[in-house]
Structure formats: structure tokens, C-alpha cells
Amino acid sequence: MGRRTGRDVRDLRRVSGGSELKEQIRAALESTLRDLQLEPPAQIQLDAPRDKRHGDLSSNVALILARASGLNPRALAARIVERLQERDDCGADVDLAGPGFINFRVHSSGVSAALRELLRTGVEVGRCDAGAGARVQLEFVSANPTGPLNVVSARAAAYGSTLAAMLSLCGYEVQSEFYVNDAGRQIELLGASVRARLTELRGGAQPVPEGGYQGDYVREIAAAIPGADADAWLALPDAESDAAFGAFAVERMVDSQRGNLARFGVRYDRWFRESELHGSDAVSEARDELERSGYVYERDGALFFRSTTWNDAKDRVLVRSDGTPTYFLADAAYHRNKHDRGFAKVINVWGPDHHGHIQRMQALARAFGYPEEWLEVVIVQQVNLVEGGEKVKMSKRAGQLITLAELMDEVGEDVARYFFLMRQHASHLDFDLDLARRQSDENPVYYVKYAYARICSIIRKAASSGLRLRAPELEGSGLDPGADAPLPQAAALERLEEPAERELVQQLVDYPGFVRRAAEAREPHRLTTYSEELARTFHRFYHEQRVIQEDRDLGLARLALCHATRRVLASALHLMAIEAPQSM
RNA sequence: GCGCCCGUAGCUCAGCUGGAUAGAGCACCAGCCUCCGGAGCUGGGUGUCGGAGGUUCGAAUCCUCUCGGGCGUACCA
Questions:
Q1: In this predicted model, what pLDDT tens digit does every residue of A378-409 receive, in sequence order?
Q2: Residue A298 has pLDDT above 80, yes or no
Q3: Is A349 helix (H, G, I), strand (E, B) or coil?
Q4: What is the pLDDT of residue A1?
Q5: What Å distances lie between residue A135 and A347, A350, A467, CA to CA?
Q6: Does nucleic acid strand B have an atom less than 7 angstroms from the CB of A412?
Q7: What is the DSSP string of A426-472?
Q8: A507 vs A512: CA distance, rounded Å
Q9: Counts for chain A of helices (H) and strands (E), in that order
Q10: Is-contact A452 A570, C-beta < 8 A?
Q11: What is the pLDDT of residues A9-50, one digit of tens each?
Q12: What is the fold of A442-575?
């Protein structure tokens, strides 16, 4: 898989992203520009304006080309509009507005054709081939197996799993991975802590070591050790004993983390053990390769990596003066391993405490000779739980952590996922526990779910009064797939002319491109915004127009609109791993 | 000190990689159920987009500086 330049990506977008309608207008516009002896810009901007009065699509070409053409933007736009109006291949009414925008109001035949296209695309709305099968690895959470998952890990889990689903829908071959740090000093400490608690359980007295783990879960682990094993491990010399207890504890913790993540709707393609690297030659190979690269030197008996070559604040230690490898070297080996596995791109989702590590990691990738865009690091910012208007104090040492499991017990999986996804990942998140607990209209998750349930209800109701459409994706869903009535022809859908209907159609048609842009920007939170807006438009449509009514053709057209909305909402909720309820 | 992130309505935040009069929710007020689900809809008002420069037809968005807040800055992981 070769490097993909920005240009390649743009070209792909044009092929796969835009609706036919948009491409038709784009083509007409390009051709008009050539008629006027103007070179069309590399990428003609043609977007839906915020304000509906400006039409369905709007282009800024006149503003862009004004300088080159020697005309002021408005005059140039006027000439372009004039030419466009003479053509009949545009499928839209054209007019000039503002400082030189060219606005298109798509004919209703075009709108209905777009809707029909969406309804015909099969079960997977929003699927496109922007990724062209490129292999992407997405690593997220990767919390140490030394304690339960906290809320930042939970946020990263919601973020990462949703992004993975989005990329996958956009044609990338995604592998999700959890890196388990099951080696090193922290594991020894965990083992020693468990051993201390076990001794305590047996009536002895042994303090938890300096810097060890204090939480109750350590006692629980100790209590779960089979007696015979415990006897044997206690008899070992200290270092080996710690290691034995540590290994047991790690397995317990990983199982628990895996279980909680699964409950949270997150499953990984692979759980990668750091110990796997140490057990093979991977670590020493990474070290050798770095030494060959020449970006390595020895000082004070330790081996340093010259990461300052790539703007890191200081050089980093690879091997300590006592001869033991650092976590950083293991990480080097890990990323080398990722590269060897053939990923075209690797995305690491890290917590806020790791943002200082980005430079050195990028430096490593550079030293290994990987392309600049190969490694992408995303930081998911911290989470404040807010209750009664105040931040909940969380102290790791006192064991007063709110865990993912507790959060799910408290507010439910769907609410938790949605709340974590509501905010941009780079922003600190205030998680309002009071609001999250409320199962009411104030809680935005239910707003979206309610819209979905309402649509399902309408579909049921319509079927019982003889109004039904063929909708194969509803097989086995409990909703009537209505095998007898085919999808209305575009002509029938043309009757969807009310403002609420047109707006709904346009939001629906925009969905595939929206998902793709959100995926490429690594911003899954946009799905929540989109879902809420779509739900709002649907509710308005529902209040303004009746689906089930005398005029059967109009009823079928509106029912088709309901089906399309249902599919898109289902897709968005599915990407977020949130249940779409048929009733609530 | 250095680095990263964030400053948008009273509060919590959107703003889809530069577009037209900056938008939602919450909170407050007033309306809407003989009718497909009222967990809904409709109206009512809020802004020096932290500040100052710059880039250009056009800036919340890009660049520089600056002021606040947060986090990070281990031969820990």
C-alpha cells in the first residue's frame, strides 16, 4: 500500500462521496466555466448553505476566480449564472446572491431521485469506498492491567470503537487493538501488592509496598487465588513470588477489562501483550535497528535515542544504566511490529497523560524510516464527573475512582456512550451524572431514540392500515418488511414538496458524505450532532404532515421518507453502538 | 521555562478543515393532544466568538503575539 497524498483522497471523495445530483451540477458548472474560458479550480466547492433560503447547494467559484478573470465577483457570477440558465442539464434553478455566490435550487425530480437512490442502496446506508481497502490499525484504551478501567478509558473506548466503525463503513480495513502492558515494574508492584494482601488475609502482616496498589480489587484478586497455588507462590523467592502473583493478577484484570468493555459495546480484533515482544527478539531487534540508524548514543551507562532530531524536548532513554529496557524501547518494538504487520496507517488513541509522548513516538517512526503520515496520535482529553453542580473528586490513591463498571450501573451503557461521544475528543468533558441519570426529554439520547421508536410505530401503524413498502432490511426485525409493495417511483416521491420534507430528504442524502468527513477528521462526536438534528427534522415533519391518510400515493411517498430516516438513524446509532429501540 | 489542549448565549456545548444575518440543548415565559407515540411540536432573547494585529472578496475557523484555565514535562508505565 503506497502513500496516499491529500490529492488522492480528494479525488476519491469526489467519486464516492457526492450524490449523483451534486455531480450533475458540478459537471454543468465546470463546463460553463470552460465556455467562459475560465479554468475550473482544482476542487469546486459546492455545499449546502446553512440558510435554506439560499437554495439547496451553493458554489463560491465566482469568488475564487474573480481575481484571475479581472472581474469583480458579482459581475463574474452574473455571467456564469446567465450561461447556466441557458443549459438544460443542470437539474436545478440557478440564481446569484450575496457577494457572488451561485445558488442552486434542485428541481423536485432531482430531490426525489436522490431519495430513491438512498432507499435503493441496500441495508448499509453510508457505505463508501473512500478507504479503498487501506489497512488501518486503531489502538485505543490500552489501560494498564493494574486496576479497573476509569472514565477516561471509558471515553477513549467510546471514541475508538465508534471511529473504527466509521472508518470501516468508509471502506477502510480496520483492525482494533488493545495493547496490554503486562510487563515491567508496574506488574511487579501489582504482584507484590497482591502478595501483601494475601498474607494479610491469612492473618499475617505485610504492608503494601511503596507505590503499590491499594484498591479493594487487589484484595479481591488475592482472595480468588486457589489455595494450592498461593502456597506454592508464597514459598518462592521474593522476585519470583511477585512475578507469579503478578501474572495471576494480570489475567484477572485483563479478563475484567475485557468483560466490561464488551458490556460497553466494545470488542477488539486483537489484544496484544507487551510480554509477547519481550518473549521474542522483537525488543532487541528494535534496539539493533535503532543503533544501525545512528540516532542512538550511550551516556552515563545508558542508551539514548536522539529524538531531539525531530523536535522532541530531550533525548529519551532506551536502555537504563542497569541494562534493563525502558517502556519506550518496548513501545518502539511494538510500533515496529505494527509496521511489519503491513498497516498503511496506524492511529493511536492516547489519554491526556500521554500527550508528552507524541513527539518521541513520532521521532521513532521517523528513525525507522516510516512515512510521515503513517503514525497518527489522537489525544482524548480528561473527563470530569459532575454531580449536584460540583466535580466529583477522584483520587486514585484512596481508591475513590469511578470505574467504567460503576458508571454503566449508574446511567446505563447507551447513555454513557452517548455522553462520551457528545463532545469533541480534544475538549475536556464535563459528564453531568444528574442529567445522565434522568430518563426524560432533557436527556439527548432519548430524544434520538424516541424519534426512532416513533418511526417504527408509524411503520407498524401504516402496515396495519394497508400501507406498506418493500423493505428487505426489516426481515427478522419484528417490523413488517411489507413484501407486497415496491418502492415508489421517483415521480411519486416528487410529491414530497413541503419544506419539512425537503429538508429531511436533504439531511438524509447528506449522510454518507457526512460520515466520511467525520471519519476522516477523526471526529465521531459529529454523529451525535447529526442524529439530534435529523431527529429534530423528523419530529417537525411528523407534526406537519400525516403519513397515513386518504391519498395513498402521497402516503407511500411519506412512508418511504420514514423508511429512509429509520435506516439512517439506525446506521448512526449502530456506529455509536447504541440501541435503536422499536418502542420505549 | 518549554510543550500540548481548551476559551463561542446565564450554564453545557455544536459550528462538517475559510462563506452569506454565528446555532442547539438546558434554564425562563406563552401556546399546541376527538387525529400516525406529548420522551414531541410552535413561538418569545440573548453574543466585544478571551484580546490585539495579520493573511483576502470573506475569519469563530488559517498565521503571529497576548491574557485566562487545564494537563504534561522520569534511567515509571
A1: 999 989 888 877 777 765 544 456 899 999 99
A2: yes
A3: strand
A4: 33
A5: 11, 20, 45
A6: no
A7: TS-EEEEHHHHH--STTSHHHHHHHHHHHHHHHHHHHHHTT-----G
A8: 10
A9: 22, 15
A10: yes
A11: 222 222 233 466 777 888 888 888 888 888 877 667 787 777
A12: Isoleucyl-tRNA Synthetase; Domain 1 (1.10.730)
* A124: confidence class by pLDDT, cuts 50, 70, 90: confident
| Distance separating alpha carbons of residues A563 and A485, to the nearest angstrom | 13
Whether the pLDDT of residue A349 is over 50: the answer is yes
Task: Report the run of H or E that residue A272 belongs to, with start and end.
Answer: strand A270-273
Q: Where in chain A is the domain with CATH 1.10.730.10?
A: 442-575
Question: Does residue A393 contact residue A385 with C-beta atoms inside 8 Å?
Answer: no
Does the C-beta of A189 come within 7 A of strand B? no
Judged against a pLDDT cut of 80, whether residue A415 lies above it is answered with: yes
pLDDT at A187 over 90: yes
* A window 353-392: Cβ near strand B (< 7 A): 353-357, 359, 379, 381-382
Give strand letter and number of the nucleotide nearest A274 (CA to C1'): B77
> Boundaries of CATH 3.30.1360.70 in chain A?
6-106
DSSP calls for A173-213: EEEEEEEE--SSHHHHHHHHHHHHHHHHHTT---PPPTT--
CATH code assigned to A6-106: 3.30.1360.70
As given in the structure block, the three cell numbers for residue A109 are 425530480
| Residue A267 in this model has a pLDDT that exceeds 90 | yes
Instruction: Give per-residue pLDDT as tens, A89-117.
Output: 888 889 888 888 999 888 878 878 888 88
pLDDT at position A340 is: 96
Nucleotide nearest to A510 (CA to C1'): B16
SS3 A50: coil
Nucleotide nearest to A461 (CA to C1'): B36
ipTM of this complex prediction, to 2 decimal places: 0.94
The kind and range of the H/E element at A262 are: helix A238-263
Does residue A122 contact residue A512 with C-beta atoms inside 8 Å?
Answer: no
The residues of A between 47 and 86 with beta carbon within 7 Å of nucleic strand B are: 48-51, 53-55, 58, 60, 63-64, 66-67, 73
CB-proximal positions of chain B, under 7 Å: 1-7, 12-17, 19-21, 23-27, 35-42, 56-58, 69-77
Residue A453 approaches strand B within 7 Å at CB: yes
Mean pLDDT of chain A: 88
Could you tell me the distance in Å between the CA of residue A439 and the C1' of nucleotide B28? 22
